[in-house]
């Protein structure tokens, strides 16, 4: 595989977790082509946690990278401090040259200030959504999503949503099998659709309740079977209305949307790892027919099952 250079641009006041996420996910592995460099304006960058980080490269690495990632930063003032013109020029140049430009959390403000997000949809941490919308009217801000994929420009919501976005990029680059393997190493969900809500007001079960994770695991082992809301609720031992409410609170999405994402994920793995016909794959993942599978692949991935298999079968 051709080496894919990733530059993580750490600005002053970088959030350590925002930086650690892409550094971990795009770490070099035998099955991945990534070569990752943490970059900054100087040899050290201050973080929000009170310690400094050593950087490996400068803006020259940013200009030469295939993917540029700007983690969230909080310089300690409102509004967020505008990066230097030198940084903004490097980001604009990367965009103009067709590089992939990505932000995690408040890193979107740097992309917006560089003009990278002009005319595009984008998101950021829910605490700063109003500020992004007010300060950059040329950007269409999506409030209730985990991440936004605009092709070569991608933005994520707050902090841990960066995991979802980075795994999404690996999935785009190398397929579902590699992305799922990395997710398992992180003990992270292998796939959360970008359209899910980023801010879940009550992610923890109320007193006396138990998590629905057991029911989700039960469903994942039966994706080829008809799985109705009533069947899921029955397995969880609650009413359908209670199941809907608690499921949304835990996952930020509906049971049916979650099932669709799980079935598409299984379809992608089957296409990568077996020579089963498209009809068989559709039946095995619970989408019924090849026509239905093609419809959802076109809507979700903008491709066909056959083209996906051709791209990611190695």
Automatic annotation (TrEMBL):
PANTHER family, per the entry: ARAC-FAMILY TRANSCRIPTIONAL REGULATOR, HTH-TYPE TRANSCRIPTIONAL REGULATOR RV1931C
Organism: Streptomyces montanisoli
Record bears the keyword Membrane: no
SMART domains: HTH_ARAC
SUPFAM superfamilies, alphabetized: Class I glutamine amidotransferase-like, Homeodomain-like
Stored CDD domains: GATase1_AraC_1
Classification via InterPro entries: Class_I_gatase-like, DJ-1/PfpI, Homeodomain-like_sf, HTH_AraC, HTH_AraC-typ_CS, INH-QAR
Residue stretches spanning the membrane: none
A Pfam family the protein falls into: DJ-1_PfpI
Molecular functions (GO terms): DNA-binding transcription factor activity; sequence-specific DNA binding
This protein's UniProt keywords: DNA-binding, Transcription, Transcription regulation
Domain of life: Bacteria
Coiled coil start-end: none
Protein known as: Helix-turn-helix domain-containing protein
Domain HTH araC/xylS-type per the UniProt entry, residue ranges: 213-311
């Amino acid at each position: 595989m051709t080496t894919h250079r990733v530059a993580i641009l750490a600005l002053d006041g970088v959030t350590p977790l925002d930086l650690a996420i892409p550094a971990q996910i795009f770490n070099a592995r035998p099955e991945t082509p990534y070569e990752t460099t943490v970059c900054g304006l100087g040899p050290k960058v201050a973080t929000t946690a009170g310690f400094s980080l050593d950087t490996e490269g400068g803006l020259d690495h940013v200009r030469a990278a295939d993917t540029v990632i700007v983690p969230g930063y909080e310089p300690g003032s409102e509004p967020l401090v505008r990066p230097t013109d030198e940084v903004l020029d490097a980001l604009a140049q990367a965009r103009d040259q067709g590089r992939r430009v990505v932000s995690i959390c408040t890193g979107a403000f740097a992309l917006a200030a560089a003009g990278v997000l002009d005319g595009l949809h984008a998101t950021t941490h829910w605490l700063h959504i109003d500020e992004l919308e007010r300060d950059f009217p040329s950007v269409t801000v999506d409030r209730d999503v985990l991440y936004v994929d605009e092709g070569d420009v991608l933005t994520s919501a707050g902090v841990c949503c960066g995991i979802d976005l980075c795994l999404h990029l690996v999935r785009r680059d190398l397929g579902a099998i590699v992305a799922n393997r990395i997710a398992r190493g992180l003990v992270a969900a292998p796939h959360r659709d970008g359209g899910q809500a980023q801010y879940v007001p009550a992610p923890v079960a109320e007193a006396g309740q138990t998590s629905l994770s057991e029911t989700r695991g039960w469903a994942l082992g039966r994706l080829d079977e008809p799985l109705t809301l009533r069947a899921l609720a029955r397995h969880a031992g609650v009413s359908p209305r209670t199941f809907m409410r608690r499921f949304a609170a835990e996952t930020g999405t509906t049971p049916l949307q979650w099932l669709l994402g799980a079935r598409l994920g299984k379809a992608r793995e089957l296409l990568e790892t077996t020579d089963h016909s498209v009809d068989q794959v559709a039946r095995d993942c619970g989408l019924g027919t090849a026509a239905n599978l093609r419809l959802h692949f076109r809507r979700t991935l903008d491709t066909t099952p056959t083209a996906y298999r051709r791209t990611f079968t190695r």
